[in-house]
C-alpha cells in the first residue's frame, strides 16, 4: 500500500540529487534518483574522479503517511564489478540517507534529495564516526 504525503508534493516521477561515498576510498559519487508511482525508482551515481558508474533500482518496503521514517532498499551494479545492497530511511517524501555494502564488505553511504553542502556534512560526519574505518 502506498501512502500520500500530507504536504503538497510534486507529481511523480520526481528526480532528486544523490551523493555517496565508499568508505574504502576517498572519492565522492554524484548522480540522481527518480521515484515512480507505487514506491519504486531508479538510481545512478558516477565516481567524480574514477568515472565508475553504479546503476540500479530501489523500492520502499514500508511507507508511512508523512513519509518521514519510510524504509526502503536498493540494489546497484557498478562498472568496476561491485554489487551494492543498501537500505535507506526517508526524512521527507523525497529525501533521506542510507548505507549499503558491496560483496567485498566495503560500505557505501549515500544521501538523496539534499543539497551538496548538507550531503557532504552528513557523509563526512558519518564516515569519520564509522568504527570500521582505519
Describe the structure.
This protein is mainly β. It has one domain (14-127): Lipocalin, CATH 2.40.128. The protein is 10% helix and 51% strand. It has an eight-stranded antiparallel beta barrel with strand order 1-2-3-4-5-6-7-8. The radius of gyration is 14 Å and the shape is globular. Residues 1-8 and 128-134 have low confidence and may be disordered.
Layout of strands and helices, then pairs:
Elements: E1 14-22, E2 28-36, E3 40-47, E4 53-62, E5 71-78, E6 83-92, E7 95-102, E8 107-112, H1 116-129
Antiparallel strand pairs: 1-2, 1-8, 2-3, 3-4, 4-5, 5-6, 6-7, 7-8
Descriptive labels:
134 residues, mainly beta, Lipocalin, 8-stranded antiparallel beta barrel, 10% helix, 51% strand, globular, disordered N terminus
Q: How many domains make up the 3D coordinates?
A: 1
Q: Could you say what the CATH topology is called?
A: Lipocalin
- Low-pLDDT windows of residues: 1-8, 128-134
Major sheet: arrangement of strands: 1-2-3-4-5-6-7-8
Helical content (DSSP H or I, runs of 4+): 10-25%
Structural class: mainly beta
Straight-line distance between termini: 42 Å
Overall 3D geometry?
A: globular
Largest sheet: 8 strands, antiparallel, barrel
Amino acid at each position: 500500500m502506498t501512502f500520500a504525503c500530507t504536504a503538497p508534493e510534486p507529481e511523480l516521477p520526481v528526480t532528486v540529487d544523490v551523493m555517496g561515498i565508499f568508505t574504502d576510498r576517498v572519492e565522492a559519487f554524484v548522480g540522481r534518483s527518480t521515484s515512480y508511482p507505487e514506491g519504486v525508482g531508479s538510481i545512478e551515481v558516477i565516481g567524480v574522479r574514477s568515472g565508475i558508474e553504479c546503476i540500479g533500482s530501489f523500492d520502499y518496503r514500508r511507507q508511512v503517511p508523512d513519509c518521514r521514517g519510510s524504509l526502503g532498499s536498493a540494489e546497484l551494479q557498478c562498472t568496476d564489478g561491485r554489487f551494492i545492497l543498501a537500505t535507506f530511511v526517508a526524512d521527507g517524501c523525497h529525501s533521506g540517507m542510507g548505507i549499503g555494502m558491496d560483496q567485498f564488505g566495503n560500505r557505501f553511504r549515500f544521501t538523496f534529495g539534499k543539497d551538496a553542502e548538507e550531503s557532504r556534512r552528513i557523509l563526512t560526519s558519518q564516515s569519520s564516526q564509522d568504527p570500521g574505518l582505519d
